[in-house]
Amino acid sequence: MGVERKVALRPGAGSDSPRPGKVAVSRRLALRLLTRVEVEGLFAAPLLDRFLESSRLSSLDKALLTELVYGTLRWQGRLDAVISPLLAFPLSRMNPWLRNILRLGAYQLLFLDRIPAYAAVDEAVELASSLFSSRQRDFVNAVLRRIAENPPSFQRPGPSSPRSQWVAYYSHPKELIEKWIGDWGEGEAAALMEANNQSPYLGVQVNLLKAGRSQVEEALRPESESVEEGSLVPHFLRVKGLSGVKGRRAWERGWFQIMDEASALVAYLLRPQPGEEVLDACAGKGGKSILLAQLMRNEGRIVAVDRNGEALSRLRENAQRMGVKVIEPIMADLEKDARFLGECKFDRILLDAPCSGLGTLRRHPEIKWRKPLASLPRLQSRQYSLLEVVSSYLKSGGILVYATCSPEPEEDEEVVERFLRSHPTFRLQDPSPFLPRPCPGLITPRGWVRTFPHRQGTDAFFAALIRSCPG
């Protein structure tokens, strides 16, 4: 970057909490959100949703706030690579509020051409003034002005490039880059990381009980940049440029719910029939349970289990809004105690297992900065335990779908293959007849269903169909 002298400042200097100041509200909120996400380990999406729903920001300010939060998280690796050489101490030792002021400013300088460089720097300086002393303010001013005066350029890394170049270019942590290159090869890993850094569509699953696709499309198109039909499942729309859905007439009427198309595909793969008994073993907020109920035409019974009471409350609210009447939410941890199921046997079981979430980095970019690979052994143990438990409640001849929103083999095929080796009365089922529409490239030679953002434009999901066979 042509900068020789580094900017010095005592690490950790400054306040631990914000003080009021005059600065654009969208940037102040972005800083608060980013710092809470980093320090408290929270997820950005629900935090941002609450801010957007409760604030009186204009639509333009809401759009800027969303762009600043997700953009800074997605490109944190590149931003840190630009900022760090200008510092006299490690960026990781800096006060988190100050660190995120620099990231926010650098993101605007490097990625948002519509914001003049002087405005990005001045707003960051005002943010620093509202939180810190004049020394920190001058420090922010010096660092960002150097970036503005000497904007860096990044070359696409090649096979012989150092990993630091991969980190800066693709904005993924080194350990994840190395693992994905080992698992998928350099070309696939690079394509996956590039796709992870793109803004995802808003997935709209049309409620089969209340509306048609054309009705929902007509309701959403006027305020959207684009509305396209999904490619994997019917009655699905991919929407771009729509600012919020709650409060809209079509939403309040229960005409649709929000979910990724790969998530909807998992529900379709179970292919439940009207009148059947279905177990959704890790239901979460219930998007798949609600879609399963639609596929069953509101006939039968769906037992939706989750250990998160707040998530089940959301499930109840959405089920009522969508007109779904066959779901029985139960708060429990099946891994610890499934005795409440008694002698129940189910025709179909969906186990969307707790996982690293590494397939959802477009929507949750903060995950990649939290050392997710370290959690794989613990998650794999829980996934296998849950699969063993729920499989015992499947009727002979019944179908179980094991799924994750992760591309990691440790969470996917390794779990299923271990299960099949130790449970000879279960067989891997060819998923081809269960696909709602032909999708070339969706099924691997081994018989797994896999989606990727760089291939199908969805989250990275894994699914395996397992049938219980008579002993």
Structural write-up:
This protein is globular. It has 471 residues and is of the alpha/beta class. Strands 5, 6, 7, 8, 9, 10, 11 and 12 form an eight-stranded mixed sheet that branches. It folds into four domains: 25-149, Orthogonal Bundle (N-utilizing Substance Protein B Homolog, Chain A), CATH 1.10.940.10; 164-196, no CATH class; 202-258, Alpha-Beta Plaits (2-Layer Sandwich); 261-468, Rossmann fold (3-Layer(aba) Sandwich), CATH 3.40.50.150. The protein starts with 24 loop residues before the first helix and ends with a strand. Helix 1 (25-40) runs parallel beside helix 3 (59-74), helix 3 (59-74) packs across helix 5 (96-111) and helix 9 crosses helix 10. It has helices at 25-40, 44-54, 59-74, 76-83, 96-111, 117-131, 134-149, 163-170, 174-184, 186-196, 213-220, 249-252, 261-270, 287-295, 309-322, 376-391, 413-422; strands at residues 202-206, 226-229, 236-240, 256-258, 277-280, 301-306, 327-331, 346-352, 394-404, 426-428, 449-450, 462-468.
The CATH architecture of the largest domain would be 3-Layer(aba) Sandwich
Say how many strands there are: 12
Task: Assign the CATH superfamily of the largest domain.
Answer: Vaccinia Virus protein VP39
Provide the domain count. 4
